[in-house]
Amino acid sequence: MKKIILFIFVLAFPILISCSRSETVVTPVPQTGYAISGVKILNSGKPIQLIGANAFHSFGASSAINDDMKSWNLDIAREFIGNIKENPINGDAIQDSNGSWLHSLQKIVDGNRLNNRITILCAFGWDGTSATLFTGKMPTQTTWFTDYKTKLQSWAIQFKNQSDVWLEVWNEPYRFDRTDGYTDDIWRNDMNEMVANIRNTGNKNIILIPCAEQSQDESVLINKGASFLANKTNILFDIHAYEKWLLATNINITSRLDNLQTNNLPVIFGETAPINAGVLMNPEFLVNQLYNRGKSVCAWTWKYDENDKDALLTLAGLPNNTNNNNWGTTFKNLSSKARNP
Question: Between 24 and 199, where is the model more confident?
């Protein structure tokens, strides 16, 4: 599975990236910029479209990586935070209990902001081990849920006056096959609890809410999305497009996107890639459809490794097209286009 491969990468990544202790600190932007209105993402009242990638700056917030992302014209870095328990919010990098060097969230944000990128801080794992990765888990049934909410509140307090920092409450909750007893009411209750946890701090930034079945099933949004949005502001639903999307027909994909639009649901596709559970897929039709509709999308993943079919780059920094339906070039071509909000 993608997430197991990811964990191996996380352990290896600190070897490749040196620990920098001198990142530039940037003055936070005022709380005026980004908002959600209807199905649109706005910046200072104007609709925008965003193209981004999932990134690992927690392990190395180096300017070289940031500069490469800038050359791809990327608007968002959706940041993997895999050791929420220990990842510092401010200050210098620290070495965690797993031996990895973790850069502070504020320095990650500062590095992205220098290149005019929005940062999505996403909770991927509790303590940096594979056992506590959030994917596939029911939030309230985890042993760390109460402690996690405390950490999430600390994130909300830190970034409540920085509108280019968006918080995603959980990465890929609930099992893909619903054998954990999932119901849409459980989703609604869990997401309401985590949104309230953030809003109680005074943070008004955009919050990302994952959908069901490890974020691949948008039916919960059709069923509960409108009622969930009632009396809330700046909520953006996150859909992940792997097998349940990319192995569907083009007609099915088009119909599902139409349904989201008809129901006036603000969505971003926070992950898509050609490999997830081992089957080679082709995201090209989907990402082109999203572009043409003015929707925003983030690729999995910003990584230099031609041996990883999901990696956008080779070790040499070129688009990675190795046995992956030309994923690197496909996404670079997309990100190079003028935005189409």
Answer: 199
